[in-house]
Design a protein that fits this description.
Blueprint: H1 3-13, H2 15-18, H3 22-62, H4 64-73, H5 77-106, H6 110-149, H7 151-158, H8 162-209
């Protein structure tokens, strides 16, 4: 049980003792906890950016085969465009979380703090939805690039039977769904827990405002 819950428990036991300063104490604790949560979200977003940079950079160092494949993919404007879009969105996400953390850190008003919490929730929501959407697009796009860059694959597909094409399509769709499920689970575990705590702080602040 955290200190905010302990304070609420003591408050309920002795209303008269805490009536004069309970709102102020709860606000201070909610403010500090909210600031720490958003700071953690910011650090996670920076770590995610570093992770994707490493994912794109390490193959050039560790494997000549993967390096050749990636260099081949860089000739595709779709691949380059998707990478530019992805990094742009992640950098924007990092900036918005940094801005949200600064806004929460300097505010001394419960209403403004609530507004900052709502904005942070929206930032996370839209970012997760974007990643699910980009995953839905990138998987079929990856298959398309692989086929277009490898004529031998296109030739095999052109001579494949209807049953084989159905099986290949089913595997591609299944792979896409599994990938999206893993992306959703990742963000649910990483961001979901912190957002849940942020929501709890918002509810406490709302009680104070009422």
């Amino acid at each position: 049980m955290d200190e905010l819950e302990l304070l609420k428990k003591d408050w309920n036991k002795s209303d008269n003792q805490y009536q004069s300063f309970s709102d102020s104490d709860i606000y201070k604790m909610s403010h500090r906890k909210s600031s720490n949560i958003v700071k953690t979200l910011f650090y996670i977003s920076v770590a995610e950016l570093i992770f994707w940079v490493l994912i794109n950079f390490l193959p050039f160092v560790l494997s000549d085969t993967m390096k050749a494949q990636l260099e081949e993919m860089t000739h595709s404007w779709l691949y380059v465009g998707m990478n530019i879009l992805t990094y742009s969105v992640i950098i924007l996400f990092v900036y918005l979380l940094w801005k949200a953390h600064k806004a929460i850190s300097v505010t001394d008003d419960a209403k403004k703090l609530m507004e900052s919490i709502l904005k942070t929730r929206k930032i996370i929501k839209y970012y997760v939805l974007y990643n699910l959407l980009i995953g839905l697009i990138s998987m079929p796009l990856g298959f398309y690039i692989s086929i277009s860059d490898h004529p031998e694959i296109a030739e095999k597909l052109s001579t494949a039977s209807t049953t084989q094409l159905i099986v290949i399509s089913a595997v591609a769709i299944g792979t896409t769904l599994v990938f999206l499920g893993l992306v959703w689970l990742f963000y649910k575990l990483i961001y979901g827990i912190l957002i849940k705590r942020l929501n709890a702080n918002y509810k406490e602040l709302k009680k104070i405002e009422v």
